[in-house]
Design goal:
427 residues; alpha/beta; Molybdenum Cofactor Biosythetic Enzyme, Chain A; Alpha-Beta Plaits; Maf protein; 3 domains; 6-stranded mixed sheet; 14 helices; 17 strands; 39% helix; elongated; disordered C terminus
C-alpha cells in the first residue's frame, strides 16, 4: 500500500511550527508495509487543501491529512475535502453532544458557538474517535476505494488517534505475510560522508538489494539500510546480513545502532568497568557534562567537572602550566592533556577528559581556524589527545566537540590509537 501525507497549516509553511506529524506517520506505517511515497505541506485556505489532496488522490488513492479540524475560520479541511468527494456538510448530533458535555465538565460553561463547527462533517463520513482532544477525525471513501483520513494537527492528539484508530483500520486492509518496510541504522562518529562512501566501496550504493542512505548530523553520519519489499522474517535476516557487511567495511567508526546515544553507551561501559569520570571543559562550557548527566543513573559514574573558560582558571583549578599556555596557546595539545590529567586528579576519578577549542564565530587564525578543537582523555594516567577542525556554527561546533570527546573515550576503551591522529601516549 502506498499513501501520501498532506500536512496543513500556515504555521508550517512560515516555519513557526516544525512538522513532526509527517515523520511520526511515516515511522508508524513503515512497520505495516505501508510506504509513504510523498509528503506535501499546504496552507490553511480551502483551495490549497483541495488542490493538494486532489493531486495526492490521483497518484495513490490513499491520503492522510493532519490539521485544519479546529473551531476557527481557518480550519477548512473538512469542507474542502468533502467537496472533492461531492459531499455537503451536515451536523453530527453525537459529536455535538460529546462536545457540549466535554465543555461543561472541563470548563464549567456551555460550548462556545465557534466550537459547533467541529461537529460539522461531510455527509456519509465515518467518524474516527479522538480520545485525546475535542476534534474527531474523519474517514471519507468513494465507490472506487479512494480514501482520505483527516486527523487533527495537534501532535499529541494525532499520535493517539493513529495508535487507537487509524493503524487498526489499515491493518484490516493489508494481507498478512505481505511485504513490510523496515530499516536498520548504524551510527558513526568522526568520519565524513565521503570518507564513508570510499570505505564502503561497492556497497556505497546499496547492500544486497537494500537501499543505503547517508544521514549526516551533528552526532556524525548515520547509515540507514532500508528494505521495502520483503516479508517480515526475510526482512530481518536481510537487514542483519547487510549490517554485518557494512560494519566490516566501516569498522571502528561505528559506535551504535538505532537511537543509541554515545554518552549513554560510554556511561554503561564505565559502569561495567567500575570507572568514574570527571570533565574539564573550555569551549563547550559544560555541554559534555550535560550530555553525560542527562543519562539516568549517571551519578554512579560522573563525579564532577570544571568549566575552565579563562586561562587563570585552567592554571589555578587544573594545574595547567602557565608556560604551556604562553608557548602554545589555550587551544593546544599540552593544555588539553594537562586539563584531562588535572581534572582526574582534582576529583579522584579514574578518567579525566580535557576539551579546549575555538567555537567562533571570531577568534580564528590561519594556524587555528574556527572549529579547531583539542580533546585529551586520561585513563588512569594513560593520556591520548587528538586535534580536529569541526564544521558548523558555534552551537554545532560545541556539540560536535562534546561528541568527539565521547568518541575519544570509546577509542581509548578499545585501545584504538590508529584512527584520526591520536598523538603518542603520555605518562
Amino acid at each position: 500500500m502506498h499513501i501520501e501525507i498532506v500536512t496543513i497549516g500556515d504555521e508550517l509553511l512560515l516555519g513557526f511550527t516544525i512538522d513532526t506529524n509527517a515523520a511520526h506517520l511515516a515511522r508508524e506505517f513503515a512497520a505495516l508495509g505501508v510506504r509513504i511515497v510523498r509528503r506535501t505541506t499546504c496552507g490553511d485556505d480551502a483551495d490549497s487543501i483541495a488542490g493538494a489532496v486532489r493531486d495526492a488522490l490521483g497518484r495513490t488513492g490513499a491520503v492522510i491529512t493532519t490539521g485544519g479540524l479546529g473551531p476557527t475560520a481557518d480550519d477548512q479541511t473538512k469542507p474542502a475535502i468533502g467537496a472533492l468527494f461531492g459531499r455537503g456538510m451536515v451536523l453530527d448530533g453525537d459529536i455535538l453532544a460529546n462536545l457540549e458535555q466535554r465543555w461543561l465538565k472541563r470548563f464549567g460553561h456551555p460550548l462556545p458557538t465557534s466550537n459547533r463547527q467541529q461537529a460539522m462533517v461531510p455527509d456519509g463520513a465515518t467518524i474516527l474517535e479522538n480520545r485525546h482532544g475535542s476534534a474527531p477525525g474523519i474517514w471519507l471513501e468513494d465507490a472506487q476505494g479512494r480514501w482520505v483520513a483527516m486527523l487533527p494537527g495537534v501532535p499529541r492528539e494525532m499520535r493517539g488517534m493513529v495508535a487507537d484508530t487509524l493503524l487498526p483500520r489499515l491493518r484490516e486492509r493489508i494481507a498478512p505475510g505481505g511485504p513490510v518496510v523496515r530499516a536498520r541504522t548504524l551510527r558513526t562518529a568522526n568520519i565524513a560522508e565521503s570518507a564513508l562512501a570510499d570505505r564502503l566501496g561497492e556497497l556505497a550504493g546499496g547492500v544486497n538489494g537494500l537501499s543505503l542512505a547517508y544521514l549526516p548530523g551533528r552526532d556524525g553520519v548515520d547509515l540507514r539500510l532500508t528494505s521495502y519489499s520483503l516479508p517480515s522474517m526475510e526482512t530481518e535476516r536481510a537487514l542483519n546480513a547487510a549490517a554485518v557487511l557494512v560494519r566490516e567495511k566501516v569498522g571502528r567508526f561505528v559506535y551504535g545502532e538505532g537511537d543509541d546515544d554515545l554518552a549513554a553507551l560510554m556511561l554503561a561501559e564505565c559502569g561495567a568497568r567500575g570507572a568514574t569520570i570527571a570533565v574539564a571543559e573550555s569551549c563547550t562550557g559544560g555541554m559534555l557534562g550535560m550530555r553525560l548527566t542527562a543519562v539516568p543513573g549517571s551519578s554512579r559514574v560522573v563525579l564532577g567537572g570544571t568549566i575552565a573558560y579563562a586561562n587563570e582558571v585552567k592554571i589555578r583549578e587544573l594545574q595547567v602550566a602557565a608556560e604551556d599556555i604562553a608557548a602554545h596557546g589555550a587551544v593546544s595539545e599540552p593544555v588539553a592533556r594537562a586539563m584531562a590529567t588535572g581534572v582526574r586528579r582534582r576529583f579522584g576519578s579514574s578518567i579525566g577528559i580535557g576539551l579546549t577549542g575555538l567555537a567562533g564565530p571570531g577568534g580564528g587564525t590561519p594556524d587555528k581556524p574556527v572549529g579547531t578543537v583539542w580533546v585529551a582523555v586520561d585513563v588512569d594516567g594513560d593520556v591520548h589527545a587528538v586535534r580536529a577542525v569541526l564544521p558548523g556554527d558555534r552551537g554545532e561546533i560545541r556539540w560536535r566537540a562534546a561528541q568527539l570527546a565521547l568518541d575519544r573515550l570509546r577509542r581509548a576503551f578499545a585501545q584504538d590509537t590508529e584512527g584520526a591522529a591520536w598523538t603518542a601516549r603520555g605518562a
